[in-house]
Amino acid sequence: MAYSRLLLLLIGVISSHLPEIQARPADFWCNSQARKNMGNKIEGLKKDTVKNHADCVGSDLLSPPVQIPCVWIHVAEWANKTLQQKREEVVGTLQMFQDGILRVMNETRLQCQMSLLRELGHHISNYLAIVSRLQIQEDLVIPPDSTVQSCSSQTSLNQVLELFRMLLKGKLERLAIDLQDNICRAEHRTTAQ
User: In 10 A of CB 84, how many CB atoms?
Assistant: First the structure.
């Protein structure tokens, strides 16, 4: 019963923070402007961090550091992965970001820092929900779980935000481009009928 309430709360939070996609995943995957609008919110968080830095001494310094997953793409390796493997890699990377943020939130004492981390956590949860709901039917064989590697530890909140932005503009955007043939053409056919 408690899990169903938590799930209902999570769905409510996610739907209230995703006005750009209007509960249609194809809108997110097929509309680069919707993805850009969501990414701009991360830029807003970065500006809030700078603005709040003057009001909140030490707000950029995180303790403990956030474990950061590898956010860059090796183009040749990415090209050889199936859509399912790419999806799993993005989900794993988002999950590692989320776990790292939650770990730091449990130990932070600065209210201004807690507020920014909570907002970042909401954004990560939104992206995680979108990518996790993605149904890829092209792959017949389910690939083994890809393990996501931690590439660094960051104590700078600004650097964490920048690396998250790089994830969005890198792996997530590449996945969206790779999905265009699979999802967007199918969506276009169903709306045209």
Answer: 18
The predicted-structure confidence for 6-24, as pLDDT tens digits, reads as follows 444 444 445 445 444 344 6
pTM recorded for the entire structure: 0.77
d(C-alpha 115, C-alpha 105), whole Å: 9
Spatial CB neighbours of 52, under 8 Å, sequence gap ≥ 6: 59, 112, 116
Q: Which two tokens stand for residue 147?
A: 């393990």
Give the DSSP per-residue string, 123-154: HHHHHHHHHHT----S-SSPPPPPPPPEEEEE
What would the two tokens of residue 185 be? Answer: 């053409």
Rg (CA), the chain: 17
**One-letter amino acid identity for 134?**
L
- Distance (Å, whole) CA 87 – CA 179: 10
Position 27 confidence tier, pLDDT thresholds 50, 70, 90: confident
CA-angle at 125, arms to 117 and 129, nearest 5°: 170
Task: Please write down the HEC assignment for all residues of 25-94.
Answer: HHHHHHCHHHHHHHHHHHHHHHHHHHHHHHHCCCCCEEEEEEEEECCCCCHHHHHCCCHHHHHHHHHHHH
User: Which residue in this structure is represented by tokens 């104590």?
Assistant: 155
